[in-house]
Amino acid sequence: MAPFFISLPRQSNDRIPISQGHISMQTPVTRLYPAPCNQYSLNGLYLQHRLHRKGQPDAPYVYSNFITSLDGRISLGGSDHVTHTVPAATANPRDWRLYQELAAQAELLITSGRYFRQSLIGEAQDQLPVGKQAEFEDIREWRLTQGLREQPDIAILSSSLDIPVAALEPYRHRRILVITGERSEQTRVTVLQRAGIEVLHAGAGTRVEGGQAISQLAKSGYRSIYAIAGPAVFYTLLEANVVNRLYLTITQQMLGGDIFDTVTRGPLLTPARRLSLASLYHDPYAPEEAGQLLAVFEPQT
User: Fold this and answer.
1) Can you spell out the DSSP letters for 200-262?
2) pTM value > 0.85
3) What are residue 157's DSSP bridge partners?
4) CA angle, corner 116, sides to 158 and 43, nearest 5?
5) CATH number of 57-68+97-299
6) C or N: which end of the chain has fewer Cβ atoms within 10 Å?
7) 3-state class of 55 per DSSP?
């Protein structure tokens, strides 16, 4: 399917003169790469990627997504929160729309025990997508027309198995898998299994091995997998060379701060994981008075 674009006259300041009150998800972004430059509706921008059709029976298509500031902050710690949270300065509804579009193409979401611990104390950003809000009705309908289930299943990667069972209750209508290492604490494995949670093993120790985890999920029939966890889980997948695509929203802001997370966290990757730019869009409308870049990266082959 050819991408939908909007041809508009270029303004002298390269911005479409629309007040913040009139910006909608139809307000276009500008493709900077690959050429030629055109303007595209934000609404539906990522749905066109058809990620749910890219996976193979033995090789699921694995993709991830982050929003970061120019100085690399994806989350910040603070005295008013127990855990690190997405900065209010970077979070914006236009990026959130794209996050939901990516979730719509997933058969399975990968998250972490940390999300459920945050959820239990009210510090999670939102419920796991696809969102049930009215503004995402078209995304939910699109998902059904593509032959996907109403909501993606959930896989929790965890070495500690510190997963509060009570926080899983809102997701009992989905299949929930926990993936952990072979030597993880058996008592916690038993607690989860008695609560009706499937536990899979990937890795000889307590730590999850990313390649084995994806192989286990492939055997379970998943073809499109959206990793929405934090830097530790992303490192696990990156280290195992199983990430097929990274969606990175870069807000044009400097945040500073001494306590923060970046996209990945773990020992030095040797060799470095090299990514090629697949596409780049400019969205001048959010965050307000800053704008953001919408980048898509793929590993070099």
Assistant:
1) EE-SSSSSPPHHHHHHHHHHTT--EEEE-S-HHHHHHHHHTT---EEEEEEES-----SSEE-
2) yes
3) 112, 179
4) 105
5) 3.40.430.10
6) C
7) coil
Place of tokens 């690959």: 34
Contacts of 300 (CB under 8 A, 6+ apart): 274, 275, 276
Tens-digit pLDDT profile for the chain (301 aa)? 444 333 333 332 333 333 345 688 989 999 999 999 999 999 999 999 999 999 999 999 999 999 999 999 999 987 676 778 899 999 999 999 999 999 999 999 999 999 999 898 887 778 999 999 999 999 999 999 999 999 999 999 999 999 999 999 999 999 999 999 999 999 999 999 999 999 999 999 999 999 999 999 999 999 999 999 999 999 999 999 999 999 999 999 999 999 999 999 999 999 999 999 999 999 999 999 999 999 999 998 7
User: Taking CA 243 as the corner, what is the angle to CA 237 and CA 244, rounded to the nearest 5 degrees?
Assistant: 170
Give the integer Cα–Cα distance in Å for 104 and 28: 21
Neighbours of 151 (CB within 10 A): 20
Do 192 and 155 meet the contact criterion of CB atoms below 8 Å apart? no
Dihedral (Cα; 83, 164, 107, 222), 10-degree rounding: 120
Which residues, including other chains, have CB under 8 Å from residue 184's CB and lie 6 or more apart?
158, 159, 160, 161, 201, 206
For residue 51, CA distances in Å to 46, 84, 93, 101, 262 come to 9, 30, 22, 10, 25
Which pair of tokens denotes residue 210? Answer: 């990313």
